[in-house]
Amino acid sequence: MAIGERIRFFRNLRGMTQKWLGQAVGFPQKTADIRMAQYESGSRTPKEDLVKSLAGVLEVSPLALRIPDIDSELGFIHTLFAVEDLHGVRVEKNENEVHIIFDGNKPNVDRSVFQMLAAWAEQAEKYRSGEISKEQYDEWRYTYPEKDTTQHWAKVPSQELSDALVEAFKDKLK
Question: Is-contact 46 56, C-beta < 8 A?
Answer without folding.
Answer: no
